[in-house]
Amino acid sequence: LLATSKVLKGERHWSYDLPGGVFGEHSPHLMYMGSAFLGKIKSVRAVARKYGEFPGMKADELKVLVEAEKGLGVFTNSFNSSKFSFTLDIYGTDGRLHIDNVKQTIIHTRSRSNRTHALVWDQLDLAFQMLAGAAYVSIQSLLGRKWYKIGQYALFEKFVESVQDNLTPPVTGEDGRENVRVLQEVWSQIG
Predict the structure, then answer these.
(1) 3-class secondary structure, 23
(2) How many whole angstroms separate alpha carbon 9 and alpha carbon 22?
(3) Could you give the 3-state DSSP secondary structure of residue 185?
(4) Tens digits of per-residue pLDDT, 100-130?
(5) Does the global pTM surpass 0.90?
(6) Which residues, including other chains, have CB under 8 Å from residue 66's CB and lie 6 or more apart?
(7) Separation CA 45–CA 50 (nearest Å)
(8) Where in 32-104 does DSSP place strands (E)?
(9) Per-residue pLDDT, 2
(10) For the segment 134-161, what is each residue's pLDDT rounded down to a tens digit?
(11) Where do the H-state alpha helices sit in 13-115?
């Protein structure tokens, strides 16, 4: 998030020089999260636009629709909100997952009927999930834990264990190569 602060202030930042510009800093995370749910990504459709006044940025909003083995996914990377966000939405037969990588939350909207009682239950379920996420973050913060790094530490630990115990790493070289392939297609589409 420090990088985002510098970008939004118009300061020169190394992320400007990445393939995909500032999106090259955040989009890989969304792609590998999406791939974990959706399987191999077959095709992408990317659109980037500039809506804000940020110097040095060719675009400040990116939307990508992916078609994969197990379904469709959409991710958004936007610098146009007063709060930085990047999200991943995955739609499936059991509903929709909304993954917010900044807030570190996953909201599962279930597929139910459009009858009044089902809609009420859906709203209560959504409210409970949001409250549970807020409570978790609040408790971790009060305990002095850096809740926003927990996932990365777990990944690092699993990687170290895989090297020590000669196991398959949590993210393989093939996973990384596939992520780069998909992102190169995104970058080619947004110019």
Answers:
(1) helix
(2) 13
(3) helix
(4) 777 778 888 887 777 888 888 888 988 998 8
(5) no
(6) 34, 38, 41, 43, 44, 72, 73, 74, 75, 182
(7) 17
(8) 41-49, 61-68, 71-78, 85-92, 95-100
(9) 47
(10) 888 888 888 887 666 556 677 788 889 9
(11) 23-38
Contacts 24+ apart (CB under 8 A), 183-188: 183/19, 183/20, 183/24, 183/27, 183/28, 183/31, 184/19, 185/44, 185/46, 186/20, 186/23, 186/27, 186/44, 186/46, 186/62, 186/64, 187/19, 187/20, 187/24
| Cα–Cα dist 50/21, whole Å | 13
Rounded-to-integer distance, Cα 146 and Cα 67, Å: 34
**Tokens 């020089």 map to which residue?**
17
53: its two tokens: 């006044």
pLDDT of residue 15: 79
- What does the alpha-carbon distance between residue 43 and residue 72 come to, in Å, rounded to a whole number? 10
